[in-house]
Amino acid sequence: MEALSVRYSQIFWDFDGTIMNTYPSMVEAVVKALTQMGISEFEIDDGEIYEAMRQSDLETALTQASAMYNLDKAALKDRYEANEKSMVKTAKPFLGVPEILQFVVDNGGRNFLLTHRDQSALKGLEAERLASFFTGTVTKDQPFPRKPNPASLESLMTTYVVDKDAAMMVGDRNLDVEAGHNAGIAGALFDPDHLIRVYSNPEIRVSQMPELEEWLEH
């Protein structure tokens, strides 16, 4: 089926914070790890942890937390990962995600997943009945450098013969947009809480998925 008249028909999606709202579970896992290491909940600023994750990444949040509470970062990360495995299973898609994935497919396009998360991302898609919307995926389990390096994107585009002019990367951080631009495609920034200091020059910045769907349609 040929793509209909949409701005971009080949959409590459980030997972955490874009498809699925995993940040609450991730923050909860960090807070639990800190309390397990002897830090009182009253001392923990979960808002600060969240902002570090959103504006930078998980590693930055763990680095800041370990420095603030004088803890070993490796030990904190180990506890976080143990907690997060079960907690993240409760994450749900952002409002409008199933609809925009369906919209892409209905208009003859394809969705691809590009995530730093492991196979649990695919299980999350399956649990929410979203997996069938995706044509191809790249996860942490494949040996690609992390975004904004474009290697993983380029691999998907080569494998599935994607026209760069029809392609766009969608994510919730600057590095997602940069990965798209580095691969020679457009980038959209999903910023639901307006926390991102934007320097990546996205083609569009939205706070809700229906906004992005409407923009793609015109």
Automatic annotation (TrEMBL):
Gene3D superfamilies attached to this UniProt entry: HAD superfamily/HAD-like (3.40.50.1000), Putative phosphatase, domain 2 (1.10.150.240)
Gene Ontology MF terms in the entry: phosphoglycolate phosphatase activity
Membrane-spanning segments: none
UniProt xrefs under InterPro entries: HAD-like_hydrolase_sf (IPR050155), HAD-like_sf (IPR036412), HAD-SF_hydro_IA (IPR006439), HAD_2 (IPR041492), HAD_sf (IPR023214), PGP-like_dom2 (IPR023198)
Gene Ontology cellular component annotations, sorted alphabetically: cytosol
Domain of life: Bacteria
SUPFAM superfamilies hit by this protein: HAD-like (SSF56784)
GO biological process, one term: DNA repair
Name of the featured protein: Serine phosphatase
